[in-house]
Specification:
Elements (H helix, E strand, L loop, with lengths): L1 H42 L4 H16 L4 E5 L7 E4 L15 E3 L3 H7 L7 H7 L4 H7 L5 E7 L2 E8 L14 H27 L8 E2 H18 L3 E8 L2 H8 L1 H17 L6 E6 L2 E7 L3 H16 L2 E4 L2 E4 L2 E8 L9 H17 L5 E3 L9 H13 L1
Parallel strand pairs: 6-8, 12-13
Antiparallel strand pairs: 1-2, 1-5, 2-3, 4-5, 7-9, 7-12, 8-9, 10-11
Helix pairs in contact: 1-6, 2-6, 8-9, 11-12
């Protein structure tokens, strides 16, 4: 009888162990499926802002934290890792500048490590570090380097843990390994987004390049057509730009381009798009904006540039720009080609240049022949005479 009981107990123990192994195996399969979905999510996003939002959302959900932030170097050649504006659920002190020098001892240490850290560990390692004080102000529960081939692509800062009954507030080894895996996937995505950003951005003005502008415009045109929305394109050209190069040198011309690009960028919404079209020409895409809205934006930019004195070395220079506007509308101008819409804005710009410069003209879609620009010019000349 005792022998039978012993055999039965042994069988039950074996069955329990087998059940535990199966449960662990199923959890690993589930976790792998989760990582696959996370990888797909990261890889499907190539723009920084939505990518960072995706990374933070995943990290917060998987690690049960109230918030998270990501320090990244968004611009090519930047000397700092800056806290992305897409942080979520963490308190920000407006008196603190949230940036960490890329040549700081902290960055050097994190770049040579493959671990995650809590604040106490880093504070002991760098007791007088200003960078640690910056991170400390975020009240982090964990600091996670985003590593790729021994290169640091960012620093993920996890916020406070959410209390769950019967679960420890401390990170388990399994959770630390999990967040490291997520960080590795995020690092690849950040690296790819950075490469795409660099390849589609004009390094001088920091505006998008012409081909990128056309690609986005095509997408927005399709969307506007099916949703019966309006959108506008503005083309700008710096008046008498050649004189800056000829009189003060090409370095001065480059400075003027940067200044104009800066004013354009600061004058549009986040959902709009500005590009350096070529030479001294710039284009702006205004989403869900008709003729009146486009004219307000274009005039705001024109006036800001006109009222800005550019100081270069010992020279004070005044700049003016001319602009042309084209408007997509399913009823009055239902063009389906990005090139045609840009050409329309270019024709309107031509009118502005020929009728005195430092002004903005709206393309008239009611005149669709090759001489539309000249006809509009003739009307404007009569009006101004």
């Amino acid at each position: 009888m005792a022998k039978k009981n012993a055999i039965s107990a042994k069988t039950q123990t074996s069955a329990a162990k087998e059940k535990q192994v199966i449960a662990e195996f199923e959890k690993h399969i589930y976790d792998l499926q989760q990582m696959l979905e996370i990888s797909k999510s990261f890889c499907s996003t190539i723009e920084f802002s939505p990518l960072i939002e995706s990374i933070l959302y995943v990290a917060m959900a998987q690690m049960r934290v109230t918030g998270a932030g990501l320090f990244i170097s968004e611009e090519f050649g930047s000397e700092y890792f800056k806290l992305s504006e897409n942080y979520s659920g963490i308190a920000i002190d407006p008196t603190i500048e949230y940036k960490i020098g890329i040549d700081s001892p902290l960055i050097e240490f994190l770049s040579s490590s493959s671990s995650v850290f809590d604040l106490h560990e880093l504070s002991e390692k760098f007791p007088e570090s200003q960078e640690i004080k910056v991170i400390e102000s975020l009240n982090p529960s964990l600091i996670v380097p985003l590593m790729l081939k021994n290169h640091l692509n960012g620093i993920l800062v996890m916020g406070e843990r959410i209390f769950v009954e019967n679960l420890s507030a401390d990170y388990t080894t399994y959770e630390k390994n999990e967040i490291q895996t997520i960080a590795s996937l995020a690092s690849v995505a950040v690296h790819n987004a950075s490469l795409i950003d660099q390849s589609t951005t004009d390094m001088m003005t920091k505006l998008r390049l012409k081909f990128y502008f056309y690609n986005i415009l095509e997408e927005k045109l399709d969307s506007a057509f099916f949703q019966e929305q309006t959108l506008s394109v503005i083309m700008f050209d710096i008046d008498f730009f050649k004189k800056f190069n000829d009189t003060y040198g090409h370095a001065c011309g480059d400075y003027v381009l940067k200044k104009v690009a800066e004013i354009i960028s600061d004058s549009i919404r986040e959902e709009d798009l500005a590009s350096r079209y070529g030479g001294e020409e710039f284009t702006v895409l205004l989403c869900n904006a008709g003729k009146d809205e486009a004219m307000l934006v274009a005039e705001r930019i024109r006036k800001r540039i006109e009222q800005t004195t550019v100081f270069y070395e010992s020279h004070n220079m005044q700049i003016t720009i001319s602009g042309g506007i084209s408007v997509f509308n399913v009823e009055t101008n239902p063009v389906r080609s990005a090139k045609i819409l840009v050409d329309q804005a270019d024709k309107a710009l031509y009118v502005s240049k020929r009728t005195g410069r430092n002004r903005v003209t709206v393309f008239d879609p009611s005149s669709q022949n090759e001489n539309s620009a000249k006809e509009t010019e003739s009307i404007l000349e009569k009006t101004n005479s």
